[in-house]
# Entry
Amino acid sequence: MAEPQPGFDEDLAGRRAECDGGHAVPGTGLAGREEFAGTLTGNYVDHGDPPWRWYLLADLTLKPDGYPEDTVWCESGNLFVLD
# Structure
């Protein structure tokens, strides 16, 4: 597998965005959907072969109950830039 390749997208830095993603639901073998909203930092990482691009969303204004972080990595296909 290719090493993750970090980068920075100046055009996205500071823009508001939403993304949805999921994680494994314990005991089910399935993933749940969760919604996030915040501000894009401009940081991204390309991971895998072929690469998937993940963007860092910070200063979260919407996150699941109990989500402890103020940032989340969003896969580009699930990222919606608002402005």
